[in-house]
Design a protein that fits this description.
The complex is a heterodimer of chains A (489) and B (423). Chain A is an alpha/beta fold and 489 residues long. Chain A has 2 domains: 2-257, Aldehyde Dehydrogenase, Chain A, domain 1, CATH 3.40.605; 259-442, Aldehyde Dehydrogenase, Chain A, domain 2 (3-Layer(aba) Sandwich), CATH 3.40.309. Chain A is built from 17 helices and 18 strands. In chain A, the strands form 4 sheets. Chain A has a 7-stranded mixed β-sheet, sandwiched between helices. Chain A has a 5-stranded parallel β-sheet with strand order 8-7-6-9-10, with helices on both faces. In chain A, helix 2 (38-56) runs parallel beside helix 10 (217-225) and helix 4 (81-94) runs antiparallel to helix 8. Chain B is an alpha/beta fold. Among the domains of chain B are: 12-75 and 87-115, no CATH class; 119-305, 3-Layer(aba) Sandwich (Rossmann fold), CATH 3.40.50. In chain B, 28% of the residues lie in helices and 17% in strands. Chain B has 10 helices and 15 strands. In chain B, the strands form 4 sheets. Chain B has a 6-stranded mixed β-sheet with strand order 5-4-8-9-10-11, with helices on both faces. The longest helix of chain B has 18 residues, at 33-50. Chain B is globular, with a radius of gyration of 21 Å. Chains A and B meet through helix 14 of A and helix 4 and helix 10 of B.
Chain lengths: 489, 423
């Protein structure tokens, strides 16, 4: 069966059948998509603008939430045909282990349950009614928020399913979206839009999915010209390139690559706790092989003179054991040649570091080990992991050392997974927040951000909208022009 | 430590028996592949004993001379080892030369390759130059139809008849100005051994001397005596740009030839090998079959020249592996050979790299081209002898999505460093 990775309900049947289709195979999955052209993209953005006016602009936000909630209910059913398609095709397309994809997809799909969407909305809009019309403002007067009419969205390909959230965010602020799936995971955006079409064809007509080669100047010029804003996820190099090409009148909202860390307090290495800590850390490391920005590159380990915990090397061995166990259940996805070369090079660098430094050690399963645990010292500048289940464990004697270690990556550090006594959580969170960390989760839960998370430290929905304030003076001063008002007469 | 200022005479009596055997093999006109196999294991045993850092690396991989049966089992050290370790069989003070990778001023981040003497290094470079570039002045480069020894060839240390020398212009500084540069040593050695007395180095502290280059081209046009122009790929781009600026073109005499090396990674602009060869034809009048590129690096002692022309795919050239080296295309994780024709990292085995490690894993990506030599035999004596197409470096790999490639964090952390040039 050939899977269509595009979704173009804006086209008539005649237009649809007039498209030139190309098929490709990735991981044994046959995919098809229309040949993208600037003219097609222009047509799509024009029709998305019309659809937004007709089906989205005047629809209440709670109505949209209801529809999305019904879509989630479809996906919550393990027998839903599109979910089965996703569970079958995504592991083959991405190389991630089927079991891992099935579990993370299941957890991920619950994040757009109706109640969670409401919480998500409330995080940025305590009164979601501002998306429907003017509502009283705490500062006096009234105010209203509007999303861009048409968004171009450039999706990430590192984590299966991610584009669904981007599309939902657009719909919640009543934006129509033209989405470009990534070549690494080209499928889920089209599956999600098809499920929406089953529930609500009008809403679905506000979404178009079309793959094109990233950076194609003619196509992207057409897409940007027809959009009010561009939301892009990608490498820093790709974003820098995009920045030069998005016209000044179009807003660019960037989600660049980031790094995450873990912080393990001395109490997490207690002899009766450390194996569970190692299990949780390994789970976060194995989450999409660290390809998602949510997994730790580095774990800081608090060591104190009086601690009753196991030595760092014992803990490292426990993490290695867990990673080896995970490998048996969920083998690491194959690395590209370049990734494999970078991975091997980083591992051997770590190996050579252990040669002249007693404080450093390296745990692997030999030259072709699919994981590596490297115990390093805090003295060197922050070093990222080459990803692919490679973690650096760095002992620190005091929490402030974590802040110093993160000094070089303040602008790109994102999540921190924390394992410490509840009473100390805020102490660590303060240090991490000052170092630029925008999300602190419990260790073991790094891969599943809570609803309402400030992605990259920013309001996810709030960043999309612009506000119109109806100032208090309007209510106070305009009585003068009220034909019914007799006070001046 | 002395630098390689007197490379022209090697007293072969001073060589160890192993080095002498390797030298004889490099210079052999009828090399037996079985000799390579035996010499590789002998050299490995020597390096294992005399190179403590390498021994440690091998022991941790359970590779000891008594266990190895074939050279394909010799552990290859990664390039990073040349930076992080002192990877040598010879104390630095006794080394005739220590070649360093270019780039950072921080010595700790520069790869260093020690050479007890340069006898093998020079024999390797002169032999490949003869076989692949200057076989005799009238024939195309490395034309395989002229197999065997070209007429007039005399061993490198012997006196060369004048007809086997030609005027060489080098777009690079001479050895004296760059004592730790393998590439400067390479070009200077060629000038000494294969150049006429009027050969020139055109790069000094003042940069590239374009005027002298143009004068030399004009002289050659006038005299009809062919020229060999040697330099890094990027220095040629500078020269060609300067020629375009003043709108000068030449028709260098028949037999003239061009040799460039390295690529453009990280440079301000990139030019494909095809574009460069076309520019050599248009600006210098040197036909494509007289233009070659070679691939080499500081960490090894052998160069790999273009097979010219390649034949089936005229625009894509493969590198030829000389008989004293093997280039195996491997999976970076398992270090085992990938199927013939599939891309992988290039793993070098180089008998001329006697003072450090003969087996080196590069970060260059390539694939074997042409027919599969292993397909002709039940065992794999041909492993690593096929031509190899070189395609860029693996460094700077981009992660699949929103997470961060190692290089991106490093570049976010540091001020931009000058990228290392090759070799």
């Amino acid at each position: 069966m050939t899977l269509d990775v595009s979704f173009l309900p804006q086209l008539t049947d005649a237009e649809h059948s007039a498209l030139t289709w190309t098929t490709s195979t990735r991981g044994g999955v046959a995919l098809q998509a229309p040949e993208p052209t600037p003219a097609l993209v222009t047509t799509l953005t024009e029709r998305l603008r019309d659809a937004q006016q007709t089906h989205l602009a005047d629809r209440s936000v709670l109505d949209i939430v209801d529809a999305l909630g019904r879509v989630q209910a479809l996906w919550a059913n393990p027998d839903f045909s599109l979910r089965r398609t996703a569970e079958d095709a995504l592991p083959r397309l991405t190389g991630y282990a089927p079991l891992h994809v099935r579990r993370t997809l299941r957890d991920y799909l619950t994040t757009f349950r109706r109640d969670r969407l409401l919480r998500f909305l409330a995080q940025d809009f305590p009164d979601p009614g501002v998306l429907d019309g003017f509502r009283p403002s705490p500062a006096g007067g009234r105010r209203r928020a509007r999303g861009p009419a048409v968004l171009t969205q450039v999706f990430a390909g590192n984590v299966p399913g991610l584009p669904a959230w981007d599309l939902i965010c657009g719909l919640l602020v009543k934006s129509a979206s033209l989405g470009k799936p990534a070549s690494g995971e080209p499928l889920f955006a089209s599956l999600f839009t098809r499920s929406l079409a089953e529930i609500d064809a009008d809403l679905a007509s506000c979404l178009a999915i079309l793959p094109w080669p990233g950076g194609d100047d003619a196509i992207e010029t057409a897409a940007f010209a027809g959009s009010d804003a561009v939301v892009a996820t990608g490498s820093r190099a790709a974003l820098a390139d995009l920045r030069t090409r998005v016209p000044a009148r179009v807003r660019l909202i960037e989600h660049g690559a980031t790094v995450s860390v873990a912080v393990l307090a001395a109490e997490a290495l207690r002899t009766d706790r450390y194996t569970e800590t190692a299990r949780r850390l390994a789970r976060d490391i194995a989450h999409y092989d660290q390809q998602a920005c949510l997994s730790p590159h580095v774990a800081y380990i608090e060591t104190t003179a009086s601690d009753t915990g196991v030595p760092v090397d014992v803990f490292a061995a426990a993490v290695a054991t867990e990673l080896a166990a995970i490998e048996r259940r969920n083998p690491r996805a194959p690395l590209t040649l370049e990734e494999a070369a970078a991975w091997t090079s980083a591992r051997e660098d770590a190996e050579f570091s252990t040669w002249d430094d007693e404080a450093q050690s390296l745990f692997t399963a030999g030259d072709d080990s699919p994981w590596a645990v490297s115990v390093e010292t805090v003295n060197s500048p922050f070093q990222a992991s080459p990803l692919g289940r490679f973690v650096r464990l760095i002992p620190v004697t005091e929490p402030s050392a974590i802040g110093r270690s993160l000094a070089g990556v303040t602008r790109i550090v994102q999540s921190a997974g924390l394992a410490c006594a509840p009473a100390r959580a805020e102490e660590f969170a303060e240090v991490l927040s000052a170092a630029g960390v925008d999300r602190v989760a419990a260790l073991g839960r790094m891969g599943a951000p809570a609803a309402g998370w400030h992605h990259d430290g920013r309001p996810g929905l709030g960043d999309l909208v612009t506000w119109t304030d109806l100032e208090p003076s309007v209510d106070a001063e305009l009585d003068l022009y009220d034909p019914d008002d007799r006070s001046g007469a | 430590m002395t630098t390689a200022s007197h490379p022209t005479s090697h007293d072969s009596a001073a060589l160890s028996a192993l080095d002498a055997d390797i030298l004889a093999f490099i210079q052999s006109e009828d090399p037996d592949p079985a000799t390579f196999d035996a010499l590789a294991l002998r050299l490995f045993a020597h390096q294992f004993e005399a190179n403590p850092a390498y021994q440690r690396y091998c022991r941790s991989r359970k590779a000891t001379p008594d266990r190895l049966r074939h050279w394909s089992e010799i552990p290859a050290v990664p390039l990073t080892a040349f930076k992080r370790l002192t990877l040598t069989t010879v104390p630095e003070k006794d080394a005739a030369a220590v070649f360093m990778t270019s780039g950072s001023t921080d010595p700790a981040s520069r790869g260093r390759n020690h050479h007890r003497h340069l006898a093998l290094y020079d024999a390797s470079l002169l032999r490949s130059f003869r076989d692949r570039f200057l076989p005799e002045q009238s024939s195309p480069l490395g034309d395989d139809s002229t197999s065997g020894a070209p007429t007039g060839y005399v061993a490198p240390d012997g006196a060369l008849p004048q007809c086997d020398r030609m005027r060489i212009l080098v777009l690079n500084a001479p050895r004296e100005q760059a004592p730790h540069s393998s590439i400067a040593h390479f070009f200077s050695t060629l000038v000494e051994h294969r150049g006429t007395p009027d050969s020139l180095h055109l790069v000094s502290d003042d940069g590239l001397d374009v005027d002298t280059a143009l004068n030399a081209f004009a002289q050659a046009e006038h005299s009809g005596k062919p020229l060999a122009v040697l330099g890094t790929s990027f220095s040629f781009v500078h020269l060609l740009d300067a020629m375009a600026d003043v709108d000068r073109t030449f028709r260098l005499p028949a037999g003239s030839r061009v040799l460039d090396t390295g690529g453009f990674k990280g440079k301000s602009r990139e030019v494909t090998a095809e574009d460069l060869r076309q520019a050599f034809r248009v600006r210098l009048g040197v036909p494509e079959d007289h233009c070659a590129n070679y691939y080499g690096m500081t960490e090894i002692s052998t160069q790999y020249y273009d097979r010219t022309p390649l034949g089936a795919v005229p625009d894509e050239r493969a590198k030829v592996v000389p008989h004293w080296a093997r280039l195996v295309v491997v999976d970076p994780l398992t270090r085992t050979p990938v199927p013939h024709g599939e891309p992988g990292l290039l793993l070098h085995l180089d008998l001329a790299n006697a003072s450090s490690c003969l087996a080196v894993l590069s970060d260059d990506i390539g694939w074997a081209a042409g027919s599969d030599p292993t397909a002709r035999a039940h065992t794999s004596p041909g492993l690593g002898t096929a031509d190899v197409v070189l395609r860029g470096r693996a460094a700077g790999a981009e992660a699949r999505g929103c997470s961060l490639a190692l290089d991106e964090v490093l570049s976010a952390n540091r001020t931009p460093a000058v990228p290392p040039s090759r070799p």
